């Protein structure tokens, strides 16, 4: 039910004008490839570099290039990096923070260590312009 609820909220936000989706701690989330409405919406997935390398191998092997072109990966080791430099830097081809953005942190509070939580909370505020 949680996944379906988040899917519905993301689709509602995109329908209402959100032009970007950011997945914090994306893991093996497949929302960017599974939801047709996101096929033309830029999606940035952030996660530990090792997790992202494994996921990128699977995605490259199983998802057609035209179905994955809208997805960018922002490798982040939250114990060493802050999120803006790695994924929300407007100089990098990832996310323009001034655009209406959906931020998903589905498993964050349960799975992240306190430093990750603190960084992610700060970056959500940064993305909201606070």
TrEMBL record:
Keywords: Methyltransferase, Transferase. The keyword DNA-binding does not apply. InterPro entries: Ppm1/Ppm2/Tcmp (IPR007213), SAM-dependent_MTases_sf (IPR029063). GO terms for biological process: methylation. It holds the Pfam family LCM. Residues 107-130 are annotated as: Disordered. GO terms for molecular function: methyltransferase activity. The keyword Iron does not apply. This is S-adenosyl-L-methionine-dependent methyltransferase. It comes from Paractinoplanes ferrugineus.
């Amino acid at each position: 039910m949680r996944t379906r609820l988040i899917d519905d909220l993301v689709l509602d936000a995109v329908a209402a004008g959100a032009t970007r989706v950011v997945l914090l701690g994306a893991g093996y989330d497949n929302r960017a490839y599974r939801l047709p409405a996101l096929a033309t919406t830029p999606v940035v997935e952030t996660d530990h570099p090792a997790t992202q390398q494994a996921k990128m191998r699977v995605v490259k092997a199983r998802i057609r290039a035209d179905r994955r072109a809208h997805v960018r990966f922002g490798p982040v080791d939250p114990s060493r990096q802050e999120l803006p430099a790695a994924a929300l830097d407007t100089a990098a081809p990832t996310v323009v923070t001034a655009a209406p953005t959906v931020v998903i942190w589905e498993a964050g509070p349960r799975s992240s260590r306190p430093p990750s939580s603190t960084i992610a909370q700060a970056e959500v505020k940064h993305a909201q312009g606070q």
